[in-house]
Amino acid sequence: MYQSSDLSPELNRINGVAITILSIVTTILAIIPLTTFIKIRQVGPCSLLLISMLFSTFAAVNSRIWSSENQSEWYSGAGICHIETPLRQPLTIAFAFAMVLMPWKLVETLRTRRVVQFNRVWRDIVFVWGVPVFIIMPFQYLVMTNVYSIIPGFGCMPEFDESWLSLLVVFMWWPVLLFLTLVLAIIMGIMIHRKREEISESLNDNSSRSSERTFIKLYIVAAVLIAIYFPTQLIFVIRYVPLRYGSFQFALEKNKEWVVPTLYHTSDDPQIQFEPWAYIAINFLMFLFYGANTDAQKSYWKFVENTGLVKLFPIFFSQQPHSSAKSLLSYGDFVGYVTRKFEKRKDSTSKPH
User: Fold this and answer.
1) d(CA 87, CA 296)
2) Which of 4, 212, 217, 275 has its CA 20 to 30 A from that of 76?
3) For the domain with range 13-293, which CATH number is right: 1.10.132.30, 3.30.450.20, 1.20.1070.10, 2.60.120.200?
4) Domain limits of the chain?
């Protein structure tokens, strides 16, 4: 749907610049957490963070390329949109599957108290990526209304018709996976509450440092899934999932203009320019969870030593992570902060009055 460029601009340029900068910064910050998930073979959070980093990369590029309302000055999108557009929907559904897998595996861990074996990693990979790669990726072309669409500030995106086939290939996954995520998150929260005494004993055991941090993360993840992810995604489902569906028409055959991109103005969907903030927040949240602890600091220090930055800037890298002085990065260790607060409260309540 082409529109004239006489409409008053509604694109928030400051928002676009901020998204570009913060997408790059948080993507870099998320590298260490991503490597951590790979090492411990956690397919759910690894997939979730990888997708978030990819979408942040898209946002950093697109917000600079399409940074105005003047369509006559726009880059046509050839090349970059042919790559991004077919990836967006499969990655979005893979993200939703990863959100289901995270509480599912945590519930399984709480129930069995055993580490998941390596052969189950492949099952998790198939669970997260099977439908996006083998169903949505190839069959989405049957229900796409055009090759791609462009909206300023956001960039390339796919559009789908409202046929029954779109319901099966695209739209049904969003509400179904959202409901499963909510149910599993609630079950996880209930199980953590029931095992609170066992968790408390682990927190009092000085030898179970890794266990206490794991349980603290369980509390935090449960709260995030229930309090943040569900209402946010529910709004997304309400906005974008059609309620009525018609007959299927093969757009590639019946529409000769299928290969022509559709250009929009910000006024057609003013909120979409702010969507990349969700992935910026995820990148930064994962950094607080896994990128500011002692192990991460050792990784940063090793990188600094290998690149020779210690010799070039000795004033900035005079302290190693294991030194007694507290590093600036340690203040960002969110899980460590919660753990210390919990321990102080336990110590104060255990002292005789």
Assistant:
1) 31
2) 275
3) 1.20.1070.10
4) 13-293
Secondary structure letter of residue 291 according to DSSP: S
User: Are the CB atoms for 152 and 15 separated by under 8 Å?
Assistant: no
205 has a pLDDT exceeding 50:
yes
Q: Which pair of structure tokens corresponds to residue 103?
A: 């509480």
Looking at residues 252-256, what average pLDDT do you find?
61
- What Rg, from alpha-carbon coordinates, does the chain have? 23
Mean pLDDT, all residues of the chain: 80
Residue pair 169/241 in contact (Cβ under 8 Å)? The answer is no
Residues 6+ apart with CB under 8 A from 199: 192, 215
pLDDT digits (tens, 9 = 90+) for 131-184: 999 999 999 999 999 999 999 999 999 999 999 999 999 999 999 999 999 899
Question: What pTM did the predictor assign?
Answer: 0.84
Distance CA 225, CA 227 (A): 6
Element at 157 (helix H, strand E): strand 155-157
